[in-house]
Amino acid sequence: MKILVLNCGSSSIKYQLIDMQGTDAKVMAKGLLERIGLPMGEFTHKYRGEKHYEQVPIADHTAGIQIVLKALVDEKLGVIKSLDEIGAVGHRVAQGGEKFPNSCVINDEVIEAIESLKDLAPLHTPGNLQGIRAMQKVLPNVKQVAVFDTSFHQTIPPKAFLYGLPYEYYQKYRMRRYGFHGTSHRFVAEKGAKMIGKDWQDLKIISCHLGSGASICAIDHGKSVDTSMGMTPLEGLIMGSRCGDVDPGALIFLMEKENLTPDDLSKLLNKKSGLIGVTGDKQDMRDVRAGRDAGDERATYAFDMFALRVKKYIGAYMAEMNGCDLLIMTGGIGENAWFMRKPILQNMEFLGIEFDAAASDEMMGEDKIISKPTSRIPVAVVTTDEEYVIASDTYRLVQ
Length: 399
What we know:
Helices cover 38% and strands 21% of the residues. The chain is of the alpha/beta class. The protein starts with a strand and ends with a helix.
C-alpha cells in the first residue's frame, strides 16, 4: 500500500510517499512546499535520486496539495501512474490533548475534536487542519489517519504532567504538560534497544531529540513517564528560536517594561528567543559553532547554554527513573552535530557514562554506539524516522 504522509504547518507542507510492504517501507518521493499564502512560494520535490525545485504561487494548502499530487503522477517527476495508487494519507498532528491517546482514522468527529484543541497549539493546529480539509477536497474517497505528537506521552503520571498552578485551571482548561516529538521518541527507543540487543520494554531509556525543536523523554519499560516540552513546545530545552525554561516572573517583568501584548510575547518566545535570541543572528547549530570558533562571545554563550540544558535534563531523568539503561541522541543536532555531542556527554563518568570521543567525532547521520565498551550506560546515536511511524500507524489502521 502506498501512503502519503503529510506534515502541514501554517505556511508549509512536508510530504513523503511511502510504499509500505508489510514491515518494510520504501520512500518513493518526498518534498517540501514553503511560503504558502505569500505572493511566491517554493516547491522542492525529490524523486528517484533527482531533485526538482521551482518558485510557484501557492495560494493555500489545497493548492499546495494539488501541486504535490500533480508532481507524483507527472510524466517526468512522477513515481506513480495514477492517484488511485495512493491507498491512504497519514497526517502529523501536533496536539491531541487528552482526547487522543492513540492514532486514529479521521472522520468529522475527529476533525471537530482537533478543532476544539487548537488553543493548546495555536501555531500548529490550524495548519494541521488545513492539510486534512484540503486532502478531503482533493482525494475525498481516500482514508486519512491522524498521528499525534502527544499520544506517546499520555502515560505520563499526574505528578509529572501537572503544573504548580491552581488545580481549577487544569479542570477548566486542561492546562498540563503534554509533550511533543512522541513519534520520534517512540521510534528511536525501540530501534536503539535493538542496537544493543534488547527489548525497549525491558529498559529505562532517555531519548534526546535535538534539533531546531528539541525535547528529552524519560521512557520506563516502554512508557513515557516524563518529557521536557510542556503544554506547548516552548518548555524545556533551549531551541533554535524558542526560549525553553524561563522564570515566569521574568516574563511578567518583560511585559510590563516593554508594554508587550500576549501576541507580542508569543512571537518573542517562539520566534525570537533560543539560539537566535542569544546570538542575535544564528539559529542553526552549525552557525553557532562557527561563531564560537571565531571568538563570538554571544555564540559561545548559546553553544554552552544548549549543552548544559541537555546535560541537566539527562541527570534529572536518571534520578527520576532511578537509573538508565540506554541514552539516545537523535534529531538533526543529535545525529549530525558531533561537536555538540561532546560537551553534552563528556564528564559524566560519575553517572555511568563513558563517552567515546573517537567514535563520535565527525560521525554524522548513522546509527552507532558512541560510548566505550566499559560504559555502564550505553550511548547510541539513532537516526529517527517520524514519517515511517506515521506511515506505519496509517497502514495498520486502514488495513
